[in-house]
Amino acid sequence: MEDGYYHLYLEELKTIPPCTNEERRSLLDRLTIGELAARDRLIEGHLILALAVAKDYRDKGLPMSDLVQEANLALTMAVSGYAGGDFLAAAKEQITAALEAALREQKAERELGEDMAARVNVLQEVSRVMAEELGREATVEELAARMQMTAEDIKKIMKLAVDALSVDGRAR
Length: 172
Hints:
Elements (H helix, E strand, L loop, with lengths): L1 H12 L7 H12 L3 H10 L1 H9 L8 H17 L6 H48 L5 H8 L3 H13 L9
């Protein structure tokens, strides 16, 4: 499905003519006096630039459709914030920065998820061992003391473990 949306986008993009250098200069002049139609055409006429930069980040952690979305948003911001100077360089720089930020965020989320999964696994093992030792389920406070964590942290990990179970009781 993901590829379908991306390919549909590529087909639609073929129908949009890119800006020529002359048109870009004219549009930028009109943009500086607040003409909204110029802003819209600048965005539309440079979608191919956003796509080209996004392609440089393919297979680095985000689906192409997400990369295109981030690039297009950054292009829109570059056009809206244009105050003079080399538009193409500024737009490319803003698009690149947005894509790199999105990839960093994705990586951080993935690492956080892996870290939390490891914590859930450790808590489950400590809980099992303590249940054998105590002859009953350990309390949150006992688990916290054993794991050298706060009771609040133990509760958060327990909630994650419960949330990881699907409706039918099997782990996702």
